[in-house]
Amino acid sequence: VSAPLLILHGSEDKVTDPQVSQFLYHKASSQDKTIKLYRGGYHCILEGESDERILEVINDIISWLDVQSVINKN
């Protein structure tokens, strides 16, 4: 992976091991990469979580996209 990369993962995910996301992050050749592990989060971090958690994830996505839009303008 060499494109800008955003990885979001719940630390308590029982479907996909969070270490797989950490491995992908470290192996990705992208210079622009971000990983965020949500402590206590499960597999569907935008569904079945508290409203506060869902807003946190959405805000993280929007913030990352805002940064990308500035980087890609230059």
UniProtKB/TrEMBL annotation:
Q: What is this protein called?
A: Serine aminopeptidase S33 domain-containing protein
What PANTHER family does its record include? PHOSPHOLIPASE-RELATED
State the Gene3D superfamilies in the record: alpha/beta hydrolase
Origin organism of this chain? Nymphaea colorata (pocket water lily)
Describe the location of the Serine aminopeptidase S33 domain by residue ranges: 2-49
Q: Which Pfam families match?
A: Hydrolase_4 (PF12146)
